[in-house]
Each structure stands twice: as C-alpha cells, then as structure tokens.
Amino acid sequence: MEIYSVYILECSDDSYYTGITSDVHKRLTQHQSGKNKNAYTYFRRPVVLSYYCEFTEPEMAIDFEKKIKKWSRAKKAALIAGHYDKLPNLAKKKFN
C-alpha cells in the first residue's frame, strides 16, 4: 500500500508552501537542493518541514492539500502548532 503525505514547508521568507508526495523525505531533499528553478521554494530556501500527515487514499490527500492551500496563514500556523481546537474559529469570516 502506498502512503501519500500532505506537507507544509516554512520558507526562509516566512511564507508557507503546501504540497503532496509519496516520499516526504525525498521531496524535502528536492526542495532543499533547488532541483527545479521554477519552483516556488527555489528562491525561498532553506525550507523547514513544519508539518505532514499521511493518507492511504490519494484522493483524500489531494483534497486535504487543496483545502490547506486555501487556508489563511493563521490557520496553517495553528495546524502546524497542533492547535486543532482553533481551526474552526480561524475558518470563520470576520465581519465589521
């Protein structure tokens, strides 16, 4: 059974990059080495693996990656810190 990882990297410019892979450690090495000059992380190295979770179903991993990519920085930071109780409130829109 293949495992799929959704991961978040913290880049040197303090931004986050979210991706999906079947080998998170190999993919981290690729990001660090600058394998692809057109990649988001290329000019934002070094990167730090801040979070990852594993799935056995690729569709679930893809759906979760897409969901995280739409999240605010604050919500991603809460996920990374393990503050799962804060995630629902960070999803709510703030009205004036």
List keywords for this structure.
alpha+beta, GIY-YIG endonuclease, three-stranded antiparallel beta sheet
Describe what this molecule looks like in 3D:
This protein is α+β, with helices and mostly antiparallel strands. It has a single domain, classed as GIY-YIG endonuclease. It has four helices and three strands. It has helices spanning 24-33, 58-70, 73-81, 87-91; strands at 4-10, 16-21, 48-55. It has a three-stranded antiparallel sheet, with helices on both faces. Strand 1 (4-10) and strand 2 form a beta hairpin. The termini are far apart.
Instruction: Spell the H/E element sequence.
Output: EEHEHHH
For the record, the count of structural domains works out to: 1
> Strands of the biggest beta sheet: in what spatial order?
2-1-3
Query: Structural class, judged by helices and strands?
Result: alpha+beta
Overall geometric form = globular
The largest pleated sheet is described as:
3 strands, antiparallel
Please, what is the average pLDDT? 94
Number of helices: 4
CATH structural architecture = 3-Layer(aba) Sandwich
Helix content: 25-40%
Q: Which superfamily, in CATH terms, is the homologous superfamily? A: GIY-YIG endonuclease
Distance between the termini: 49 Å
Computed Rg: 14 Å
Q: Write down the CATH class.
A: Alpha Beta
- Which residues form runs of ≥5 with pLDDT under 50? none
- β content, as a range? 15-25%
CATH topology, by name, is: GIY-YIG endonuclease
Instruction: Give the total of beta strands.
Output: 3
